[in-house]
Amino acid sequence: MDSPINDPVNEQSAATLATELAAPTVSRAYRCQCGRPVFLRNSECLACHTPLGYVIDRLGVMPLAPAEGGGALPDTFTVFGDPHGKTYRRCANLMTPAACSWMVPAAREGEEAPADVHGLAPGYCLACSVTRTIPDLSVEAHGVFWGKLEQAKRRLISQLLALGLPVVSRHADPVHGLAFDFLSNMPGGPHVMTGHEDGVITLNAEEAEDAVRERIRAEMREPYRTLLGHFRHEIGHYYWDLLVQPTHWLDDYRALFGDERADYAASLQTHYEQGPPPDWADRFVSSYASTHPWEDWAETWAHYLHMADTADTAMSFGVDATNVELTSDLFTADDLSQPDHPDAAKFLDFINGWVLLTNVLNELSRSMGQPDYYPFVLPRAAVGKLQFIHRVITEQRAGSAPTMVVASDVAATEPEPAEPAPEQTQTQTQSQGGAQS
Fold it and tell me: Where is the composition biased (Low complexity) (predicted)?
């Protein structure tokens, strides 16, 4: 019998934020078996020292117990309170600078390997298996950079799984799978550009240095620049290729975002030479979104992920925004791209709940003398685009596609060499980044 601890199926989040806010995924509040709150980064409860780990089956951080009886192997665990349930091992990156606390499905003695490990690098969890290249750890500070990058990526992957989006490693699908290259600038070499191309997301590892990232943010006149923001933007390009371009969504996408067949390189050049159009704030979530329809999609996608995860977290911890004084008007059905959609009212509640929540979060930031938590003003034109992304994601979640595809699920493709496991890629290779940034 499954343990009810942190079980998203059994757990009911208390909707104390506001009746207007209906978060679309699962609880972000995790608890140890002793009742103390624990967090996504934890591998052990600091109060009672119970081992903890992120378990994909439960979509959360779970207290663990050593596996016992029934062919249990050394160094394997079950979820606390479920001694006869599935067994797991620690990810091989637990004791590396990546400090990964995720669990890997493991077999008991005499059993075949679980089906959901066939798409993973041997010994590694899903989040680490999609990392293809890590920074050169012989360089001082690169270990710290790698740890920060992986921490942000684990937050991303956990949200994608909760949303029901496919997360497929290149070990499972060498053609359409996802891979991350964390590179840094080499003396005399080309500058590493953050970007996406054909499922490979490249990030300049030096942006894990706060001072470097803040300098770039100021130079680019951006209101917001974080590692998690980079991940959410670039993964948007990946899912456009996967969920929009080859599907029935393409015509609706073009009606809202524009025709992606416009010259991308020329659009980038125009943006950097002339800046955004004067009315960009009335039509886009950010100035960069005005560059090209691909970038409008990726920026809006990233905003949706920001909103969904923050709303889930706020609701999970009982944040209440009902008494906030609004600095802007709420949105109406006229702002939606599909006001007659069966899910339109629920989505509108979510958007307006977000407006209430960000007013509270911004006031909290100001009370500490910090910049606004959410330094954006959503234009009405962007709300319809956000609804479109919401529809794409909810249709995907409602479908039969698994969140993690294993090798046996992948259609036959031309054989290609398997990607090396993360520990085999510590010698950095150089890349110019992806075609999309």
Answer: 411-430
Give the model's pLDDT for residue 430.
32
Residue ranges of alpha helices (H) inside 222-367 are: 227-239, 250-257, 264-274, 280-283, 293-316, 344-367
| 175 and 258, same domain (yes or no) | no
Q: How many residues make up the chain in this entry?
A: 437
Q: Could you tell me if 98 and 163 lie in one domain?
A: no
Tokens encoding 56: 């994909």
The phi-psi region of residue 420 (left if phi > 0; otherwise alpha if psi is between -120 and 50; otherwise beta) is: beta
> Could you tell me the mean pLDDT of each successive run of 10 residues in the chain, 437 residues long?
46 43 71 95 96 96 92 91 93 97 90 80 96 94 97 97 93 93 91 95 96 94 94 98 96 98 96 95 96 98 95 85 72 96 92 89 94 93 97 84 35 34 40 45
Nearest to 429 by CA among 420, 148, 236, 97: 420
What DSSP element (H or E) covers 132? strand 131-133
> In this structure, what is the dihedral angle of CA atoms 159, 164, 167, 168, given to the nearest 10 degrees?
170
Angular region, 62: left φ>0, alpha ψ -120 to 50, beta rest: beta
Query: Within a domain: residue 392?
Result: yes
pLDDT of residue 10: 40
Question: Comparing C-alpha atoms, which of 333, 244, 335 is closest to residue 296?
Answer: 244
298: Cα separation from own chain's centroid:
13
pLDDT of residue 21: 58
Distance CA 364, CA 382 (A): 26
Can you give the C-alpha Rg of the chain in angstroms?
A: 22
In this structure, the answer to whether residues 268 and 395 fall within a common structural domain is yes
Angle at the Cα of 51 from the Cα atoms of 47 and 57, rounded to 5 degrees = 125
- The answer to whether position 17 is within a domain reads no
Domain of residue 30, residue span: 26-114
Per the structure block, which two tokens stand in for 216?
């770039």
What is the spatial distance between Cα 40 and Cα 231, in angstroms, rounded to a whole number? Answer: 17
Q: CA 387 to CA 389: how far, in whole Å?
A: 5
d(CA 403, CA 336): 28
Co-location of 214 and 312 in the same domain: no
Q: Distance (Å, rounded) from C-alpha 56 to C-alpha 130? A: 15
Bridge-based pairing state of the strands 179-183 and 200-204:
parallel
Q: Which residue do the tokens 């890590």 mark?
A: 134
Amino acid of residue 192: V
Q: Residue 7 has what pLDDT? A: 52
Question: Virtual CA dihedral for 287, 292, 297, 301, nearest 10 degrees?
Answer: -40
Based on the number of CB atoms within 10 Å of its own CB, is 44 exposed (0-12), middle (13-18) or buried (19 or more)? middle
